[in-house]
Input
Amino acid sequence: MLNPDVTQATIKTTICVVGWTTTIRPPSSYTSQLKAQQMATEHLPGSPSDYEEDHRVSLELGGAPSDPMNLSPEAHPGSFTKDADENRAKTRVCAGADLRQVQTEFIQKWLGPYPTYKAFGQVA
Output
């Protein structure tokens, strides 16, 4: 799911503002509980500290902050690689690239393991 407050028309007052994501990031009490539930449901090995409860579409690209369909446990160190790609994508959008196009490219690259993920109201 995407954050309806983030559109091409609003990027200069949302994702392109330094620190904006901290104003919408869900509290760790929520994400920690969700991560534990998802790890149990998915039978993931290891401990919660082995994973980051990550936004499938990052807040920096207009991902929905608290939607459980946009959050999932992501094992380290893979989460760090994805973080770098998220930052590059945001930089592209803030430099003038089309938000929806960059979101689509990001979803195609990073969300292959989630074939039922619905970002744009359809299966990505």
